Amino acid sequence: MDVLLTASAIFTLIALYFLFSVFRNARRRRPLRATGSLAGGVASGAVGGASILLAFSYYGYGRLVDEQLVSRIEFSQASAGEYVARVMIDGQTDRLFTLRGDEWQMDARVVNWKPPATLLGLDPIYQLDRLSGRYSDIDEERTSMRTVHALSDELALDVWHVARRFPALMPGVDAYYGTATYLPMADGARFEVTLTRTALIARPVNDAAREAVGEWGQ
């Protein structure tokens, strides 16, 4: 994080220097030097802007080190085909979401680094994206009411969105969805969700959840 902030400050100062040089050379009627300074300013500004974007996103996302617990989720049945999910994330207030169907699915965004960004020594970062209800029967999935809830707020500066839409502007950034995890819902079932660098993994942690997973897999 300190490296990104330092880099953004340095390149911003360089961009300001080139901007001053553009005006100075233009005033002295040196068009070639003014053009060169403009090109240098644009390049430095782009790198500085990318560094600021990375810094804000790195702060707004969670750091991913090996496999780690990212959430706990517990279900209570409200009615036939409808459950209330209690989502528990360390450091956040528990949240309740209504889900329809007989299965639940959680998705996450993951940002990994490739050269040249790997030179900064950054850890992969992640953000839980959404929780949704789903149906095991494909006809129900096509015709029944769907429910989906956001698990994180949109960031004003988000490296994930920029890297997905404009990959040429963010060399060294590998932004993708972590493999979604889904399992059955059941009254009283409780699960833990962990995240590796490539996938979300959900595991049952009580008898109600283990029983539901056992029946689901048959």
Concise synopsis of the structure shown:
By secondary structure, the chain is an alpha+beta fold.
Care to describe what's here?
The chain has 218 residues and is α+β, with helices and mostly antiparallel strands. The protein folds into 2 domains: 2-60; 64-216, no CATH class. Helices cover 36% and strands 34% of the residues. The chain has 5 helices and 10 strands. It has helices at 2-27, 31-60, 138-143, 159-165, 207-216, and strands at 62-63, 68-79, 82-88, 95-100, 103-113, 125-134, 148-150, 173-184, 190-195, 200-204. The strands form 2 sheets. Strands 1, 5, 6, 7 and 8 form a 5-stranded antiparallel beta sheet that branches. A 5-stranded antiparallel beta sheet has the order 4-3-2-9-10. α1 packs antiparallel against α2. The longest helix is centred in the N-terminal third of the chain and has 30 residues, at 31-60. The protein starts with a helix and ends with a helix.
- Please report the distance between the alpha carbons of the first and last residues: 47 Å
Strand content: 25-35%
Mean pLDDT: 77
Q: What is the helix content?
A: 25-40%
Biggest sheet: strands, sense, closure?
A: 5 strands, antiparallel
Work out the helix count. 5
Flag low-confidence runs.
none
Shape: elongated
Note the run of SSEs as H and E.
Answer: HHEEEEEEHEHEEEH
Radius of gyration: 23 Å
- The total of beta strands comes to 10
Helix and strand composition category: alpha+beta
In terms of quaternary structure, the protein is single chain
Count of separate structural domains: 2
